[in-house]
Amino acid sequence: MKEITVLSGKGGVGKSSIAASLAIALSKKHKIVSADCDVDAANLALVLGVREKDFKEWKPISTNEKAVLLPEKCTGCKKCLNSCYFDAISWDSDKNQPVFDRFSCEGCSVCAMVCPEKAIKLHTVDNAKIGYGKTRFGFDVVSGQLEMGESGSGKVVAEVRNLARQVGGDAELMLIDAASGIGCPVIASVVGSSYVIAVTEPTPSGLSDLKRALGVVEHFGIPYGIIINKFDLNPDFTKEIEKFAKENGIEVLAKIAYDKKFVDALINLTPLVVFAKEYEGLFEEIAERIRL
Predict the structure, then answer these.
(1) CATH number of the domain residue 121 falls in
(2) Residues 36, 46, 252: CA angle, nearest 5 degrees
(3) Over the range 50-65, which residues count as b (16 or more CB within 10 Å of their CB) and which as e?
(4) DSSP character for 158?
(5) pLDDT, tens digit, 9 for 90 and up, residues 62-72
(6) What is the mean pLDDT of residues 163-172?
(7) Mean pLDDT across the chain, nearest whole number?
(8) Which residue pairs, CB below 8 angstroms and at least 24 apart, start in 21-24?
(9) Are residues 118 and 139 located together in one domain of the fold?
(10) Which of the chain's termini has less CB crowding within 10 Å, N or C?
(11) What span, in angstroms and rounded, lies between the C-alpha atoms of 71 and 83?
(12) Angle CA(48)–CA(49)–CA(51) in degrees, nearest 5?
């Protein structure tokens, strides 16, 4: 199964809307499965019209650990107190023992390693849930949701991709909607991809963040192309992005004009290519230009 990842350096550029319409375009010629790997703010299923009640299965997963004190072993040496990089440990003077903030603890295990009495252990926690549902377009969408205040999003992304491979079965393609930015969940979405589509917009921050995101993709040696969304809102800066692409041998897969129908489609939980049929040809052309 080849995997196509859609990402963006910054939020708000229309990445998920484009990913949903591209998934439908790809599904016309290939058996596909889609995966929402923006586990901090998953919404690909909504864009595809799949509601919570439509999911066949949700299951909790544990991809992170939290520090837990064994009070009977603690001697109050305070070595753990100064070892925590995340400031997740405070001190209870009455009990002369550390107190762990479960929301700040990243499960790095440094406190457990420095404790001479082995009074600290790591306990696994259910920090997310993953599930899947069938779209009305004939393919499944797999989604993951990180629980509020929890960490470990990169590992959750890996679990979402694994489930998508299982659900997809003999599917030819997986379409991944990654998070925006260049953090751990993005890296976990990009690793092992066959092709990456980077969506940007014609603004200084759009180009700056695009360059950073492409740096991640290039690190893993993955072929990619870019889509300039809302290109007509700033024609001069669109030229700047095109110049950057030309100088670096980057293929511009498409330029999409600003259209309020993008917003109307989202409001109606309908992919753009279904809400506005005139976009079908554009996304089918993008699908054809992807080099797998």
Answers:
(1) 3.30.70.20
(2) 60
(3) beeeebeeeeebebbb
(4) H
(5) 888 999 999 99
(6) 96
(7) 94
(8) 21/271, 21/272, 21/273, 21/279, 21/283, 22/175, 22/197, 22/283, 22/286, 22/287, 23/48, 23/137, 23/139, 23/175, 23/271, 24/137, 24/271, 24/273, 24/274, 24/283
(9) no
(10) C
(11) 18
(12) 120
* Residue 221: both structure tokens together: 């040696």
The reply to whether 131 and 192 lie within a common domain is yes
Q: How many domains does the chain have?
A: 2
Signed CA dihedral, 139, 143, 221, 210: sign only: positive
Q: pTM score, two decimals?
A: 0.88
Q: Are 146 and 103 in contact (CB under 8 A)?
A: no
Among 104, 125, 146, the domain-final residue is: 125
Say how far apart CA 231 and CA 44 lie, in whole Å. 23
Query: Which residue matches tokens 């998953």?
Result: 42
Distance CA(247)–CA(281), nearest Å, equals 28
CA atoms within 13 A on the CB side of 127: 25
* DSSP tag of 277: G
Considering the domain architecture, whether residues 46 and 158 belong to the same structural domain is answered as: yes
Residues 129-160: pLDDT tens digits?
Answer: 999 999 999 999 999 998 877 777 888 999 99
Identify which of 227, 213, 161 has the alpha carbon closest to the alpha carbon of residue 189. 161
Instruction: Look up residue 6 and give its two tokens.
Output: 């859609």
DSSP three-state, residue 69: strand
